[in-house]
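[09:14] KT: can someone run the structure on this one? pasting the chain below
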Amino acid sequence: MDISRELLSLHKRALEHSIQENKPTLRMVFIDESTDTFEVTPPYEEPTTLAEIAHDEYAMKIFVEKKPEDWKD
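[09:31] RB: done, structure tokens below
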């Protein structure tokens, strides 16, 4: 019996179990360059800084750029 193969199998099962119990919350972060604001949907349960949001692997960041000066409506 190969121990490394057994350990890999055990690690896979443990990872699947932890994901099933602690499902991550997927979020969208809208960062508006023109107003220098951001909105998080759904909101975090605890106060969170921009640095923490930037490192959240389950948050999709959407940058809304400011219109150019020569933009015609």
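[09:33] KT: thanks! The longest strand covers residues 27-32.
[09:34] RB: yep, looked fine to me
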